Structure prediction request, 312 residues.
Amino acid sequence: MSERERTTMEAVQSEAPAPDAEALVEVGDIDRLRPHARPLQERPIIDRSGRPLLSIEHVTQAIEGHSIFEDVSFEVWPGEIFGIMGMSGSGKTTLLRVLIGLDKPTEGHILFHGEDITELDEDGLNRVRRSMGMCFQYSALFDSMTVAENVAFSWRNRTDVTPDAKAARVAQLLDMVEMAGTEDRMPADLSGGMRKRVSIARALMEEPELVLYDEPSSGLDPVMSCNITGLIKKVSTDTGSTAVIVSHDVPNLLGICDRMLMLHDQRVQFLGTPDDMRASEIPIVYHFVHGLGTGEMTEHCSLQTGVGTDVG
Prediction:
C-alpha cells in the first residue's frame, strides 16, 4: 500500500463515528440505539427582551436590473439558531452575502448591534466582520495549507500571539469539532465531512458572536448531514454564539433551528418556528417541507417521508 493510500485510509477511518454512539445499525435496532446517542447540552431560552443582534429592515437586492428578493425584514436574537430556506435559486446565498457585508443591498438597512452596516466603508465592515464567522458552501479550505494553518488563517499576521498560544487555540477548536490530532493533515486527505468540521473550526477562531453557514450539509450523505447540523447546534450552544444557516436540507434544519424563514418568488413566504413550519398550510411552504413536486412526473413524491425531529 502506498503512503498516499495509507493516509487516505486513515482519514476515512478517523471520520468513522464511534461505534457506541453513531455506528450504522439494522433498521430494527434503531430504538435500541437511541438511548445511547450522545445528548447535547440543553439550549437556553432565547431572550428577546432586549435589542436583536441582527436586524434586517426592508432589504431589496437586484443585480443588473433583475430582482433577487424584495422587502425582506426579520430579526435574529443573541444565541438564536436561525434558518433561511428556499428552493435553489431563491436568493438564500445572496441574502447571506448581504448580511455579512460582502454585497451591499439595493435598498434597505442591516443593523448589527444597532449599527447600520450598509453605511460603512471597507474599514468599518472589516471591524464588524471580526465579530462574525463564515462557513462557505464547499468549505473553501486552502489546499496548500495544513489543517492547523487553515484554522489559524485569520491569525496569520498577528504579532501579539505566541506560536504556543496559537497552537493551543487551534487544538481547542479542533477538539470542539471532533477533529483532535489532525493539525498536520492536508485538506486533500480529508473526507467531505472532515473538511466541513475544519471549516467550522476556522470560522470560530476569532470567537465570533455571529456565525453564518452557507449550505453546511451540501454534498454530504444523509448520515453525515445529520452529524454536521448536530455539530452546529452543539457549537452554538457551547459557545453561546448566534447562528444563521442557509440550507434546503429540510429535516435537519427543522431539527436544530429556533426559528426559520423561507424565501420564494423574491419574497419572504414564511417566518416562524419549526413547529409552525411543519403545520403551515401555505401551499409553497407545505410542498417544500414535505418534498412534494408541483409538476409532471411527481408521482414518486410522497407524504410518507418523515419531516425532521430534533437533532440530538
Remarks:
- The two ends are 39 Å apart (CA to CA).
- Residues 166 and 198 are 16 Å apart (CA to CA).
- Confidence is low (pLDDT under 50) at residues 1-37.
